[in-house]
Design a protein that fits this description.
7-stranded antiparallel beta sheet; 198 residues; 18% helix; alpha+beta; 12 strands; 4 helices
């Protein structure tokens, strides 16, 4: 930032970032008999070759050192009915008794039973980024849960849910062949689309 750049208010930054709707995950790692989980929405895929994902973890979080010692981790995508688990693993659970959950042993890290989907990772490397660490995982396992379940979302500082539209017909999904045909039929960059007005 140059001296001419005005300072950015961190609270305004958080509000703006909150306008980007995300899914909600529980990142989990196992070291010996101990399993540690953490709620995270700063997660994304990175690369197809090799298969890489990343998650951002606060440097003061216990999970930061736990993943490095474990050597791997899982990322478990929460369904709409798993909001209590998101709160629990974010240390925002108020009742005395924790919500029911179970982790199954799995490649990379323990898999949270009931999740929409899970990604098992071997720790690839981590990069320091301010008060967080960007942790890259090499994907070594995949799990797909109930395809009819809806995701838990986070938007503008609150948990949200998708509302299914009544009486609508979902469009057919595009296949790889559909995409290939679309791009092969599209004009080259130096070729204008044909005039179809006449």
């Amino acid at each position: 930032m140059s001296a001419a750049d005005p300072p950015v208010d961190p609270l305004a930054f958080r509000r703006v970032m909150g306008a980007f709707a995300t899914g909600v995950t529980v990142v989990a790692a196992q070291q010996g008999d101990e399993v540690h989980g953490m709620t995270a929405n700063a997660f994304t895929s990175v690369s197809l070759d090799p298969l890489l994902v990343l998650v951002c973890i606060a440097t003061h979080a216990r999970m930061d050192g736990f993943i490095r010692r474990a050597g791997g981790f899982s990322v478990n995508f929460l369904s709409a009915d798993q909001e209590p688990l998101s709160r629990y693993f974010a240390n925002a659970w108020r009742p005395a008794a924790p919500p029911e959950f179970r982790f199954d042993p799995w490649d990379g890290g323990p898999r949270l039973v009931g999740s929409l989907a899970s990604v098992g990772c071997r720790l690839d490397h981590a990069v320091d980024a301010g008060d967080h660490r960007v942790v890259l995982g090499r994907v070594i396992a995949l799990f797909e849960g109930d395809p009819t379940a809806l995701p838990l979302l986070f938007f503008s500082g609150r948990y949200r849910r998708l509302s299914e539209l009544e009486g609508t017909v979902a469009p057919e999904p595009w296949s790889h062949q559909d995409v290939q045909i679309f791009y092969e039929s599209w004009p080259a960059p130096d070729q204008a689309p044909a005039d179809e007005s006449s």
